Amino acid sequence: MPERTPSSRRALLSVFDKSGVVDLAAGLVGLGWELISSGGTAREIAAAGLPVTDVADHTGSPIMLGHRVVTLHPRIHGGILADRDDPEHRADLEAHGIDPIDLVVVNLYPFRSEPGIEMIDIGGPTMVRAAAKNHAHVGVVVDPDDYPAVLDELGRSGGLSDVTRRRLARAAFAHTAAYDAAIVGWLDGTDKDAEALPPTLHLALERAEVLRYGENPHQAGARYRTIGENSMWDGVVQHAGLALSYLNLFDADAAWRLAHDLGDRPAVAIIKHANPCGAAVADDLATAYQRAFECDPRSAFGGIVATNRVIDETTVEAMEAAAQADVVIAPGFDEGVIGRLIAKRKNTRLLTAAAPAPPAG
After folding, report:
1. Which site among 109, 193, 232, 262 is 20 to 30 Å from 284 CA-CA?
2. Can you give the three-state secondary structure of 1-27, one letter per residue?
3. 133 classed as catalytic
4. Cα(349)–Cα(290) distance, integer angstroms
5. Is residue 83 within 8 Å of 134, Cβ to Cβ?
């Protein structure tokens, strides 16, 4: 067990994703921090010639149970959880020879991509949650993308602000919540006796896009996706027009799926406020568009037009003569078509997208 140096600032680094961790460690050492680490993280830091104390040396306890028990020790969790403003906590640290830990850098086993019992991380989430709970005194970093900003703030200010520690704590709890949700999903998905309708559902979503507004202009809106996954909308390209709103996205998704659900012939779907104004198939796209538009020309104004074929010049001529659409979404546009649509209606959102994935199951 190393000699105690109560005045030192300490960081505990234990990460599965080691992207940038050596640079972070070097930056911390350069700022006068002591490093505690374990396993492969400690080896990488030491290999870079940086001073680091192994967790086993810090705690005085060996790694055991095939690496299942490494950091579960009072010298780790007491150091993370101690309220520095509480005299009783400070007395406990002194009585038990526990050094405070001021920064915890941890990311978890990749359970979503490699599910299994040994990928259920125990020590990592415990440290993350402990540091996030005590964010009044401890910084916690779970995303390598945050390393540069954390180092910069430590270098400029000597510590992390209340605002930064709270932001990092929120990210940490979101990280562990998503991790637990993935484990529950795996247990349900691998249970041959599982109920068709599970007793609980646990969604973990991340914001992928801030929208122009929500259902109405005075409301906020955003598009979310399952953490760790991409949706069709992540590959959509907008060529022209205003930014998308919630209803644009909602109706465009419905129209896009309907246009691709009408068979193999050229098809067009027009939707407004979640209701189909028209849908048609034909031997060519221009005829399909005209038929779909004529189903309800009045409601089609300001609606969403989706096609399952590249929009050609014949089709764009029919569109120019018809009511304005808020969104046109297609697999592509022939040369010159986008320019014609912009010249006619500059605010119309022109999107290209890949065909939607078939329904699961």
Report:
1. 232
2. CCCCCCCCCEEEEEECCCCCHHHHHHH
3. yes
4. 20
5. yes
Domains 10-187 and 235-352 share a fold: no
Of 361, 257, 242, 343, which is closest to residue 307 (Cα–Cα)? 257
The domain 10-187 is placed in CATH, from the list 3.10.580.10, 3.40.190.80, 3.40.50.1380, 3.40.630.30, at 3.40.50.1380
Q: How far is CA 192 from CA 187, 196, 198, 203, 292, in A?
A: 10, 10, 13, 22, 46
Give me the residue spans of the domains in the chain: 10-187, 235-352
Q: What averages of pLDDT result for each successive group of 10 residues across the chain (361 residues)?
A: 58 94 96 92 94 89 80 90 93 92 93 86 92 97 96 94 96 94 91 88 91 91 90 94 93 95 95 92 96 94 95 94 93 95 92 84 52
Helix (H) or strand (E) holding 217: none
The catalytic position among 67, 96, 273, 344 is 273
Which of 18, 133, 137, 202 is an active site residue? 133
Report the C-alpha gap between 78 and 93 in whole angstroms: 7
* CA gap 311, 291 in Å, rounded: 15
Does domain 235-352 fall under CATH 3.40.140.20? My reply is: yes
